[in-house]
Amino acid sequence: QVQVVESGGGLVQAGGSLRLSCVISGSIFSYTTLAWYRQAPGKQRDLVATITGGGTTNYVDSVKGRFTISRDNAKRSLYLQMHSLKPEDTAVYYCNRAGPKFSVGDREYWGQGTQVTVSS
Predict the structure, then answer these.
(1) 107-119, pLDDT tens digit by residue?
(2) What is the reported pLDDT for 30?
(3) Distinct helix (H) and strand (E) counts, the chain
(4) 38 - beta bridge partners?
(5) What local confidence, expressed as pLDDT, does residue 26 receive?
(6) HSE on the CB side for 18, CA within 13 Å?
(7) Coil vs helix vs strand at 102
C-alpha cells in the first residue's frame, strides 16, 4: 500500500527559503513522473512542478526561477527547494504522481501535506 510523507514546511519571512521533502513507499518510484502540488486556503489544489524519472523538470510560471524540484530514486524521495518566497506561496504542499494519482483501493490517496507560511 502506498504511503506518502511530506515534511520541511514552516513559517518564513518573505524572501526566505525552505526545502520540502517527500518520501514515497509502496509504489513504483524510479520511472514515475512525480509532482509537487499546493493548496492555499479556500482554493483548489494546483500543480507547482513536475519531474520525470529521467530528471526533466517543468514549473508553473509563478515559481519559475525560484523553485527547484529534484528527486533521489535510491532514497525514494522527492524534494522542492524554494527560494525568494512570497506571501502568495503560502499553502499546504503535497507530492503525488503527475498523471493518475496514487490510490488506495478505488480512492485517490494524498499524504498529509506540509504547511508553508510566508509572512510579509
Answers:
(1) 999 999 999 999 9
(2) 78
(3) 0, 12
(4) 46, 93
(5) 84
(6) 21
(7) coil
Phi/psi at 54 (5° precision):
-90, -5
CA 62 to chain centre: 15
- Rounded distance between C-alpha atoms, residue 6 and residue 88, angstroms: 20
Alpha-carbon span 2 to 91, nearest angstrom = 24
Q: Which residues contact 103 (CB under 8 A, 6 or more apart)?
A: 2, 109
Name the β-bridge partners of 89.
Answer: none
Closest CA to 45 of 104, 107, 110, 100: 110
pLDDT at 38: 98
Contacts of 52 (CB under 8 A, 6+ apart): 33
**Tens of pLDDT, residues 27-81:** 878 789 999 999 999 999 999 999 999 999 999 999 999 999 999 999 999 999 9
Nearest residue to 80 (alpha-carbon basis) of 4, 9, 5 = 9
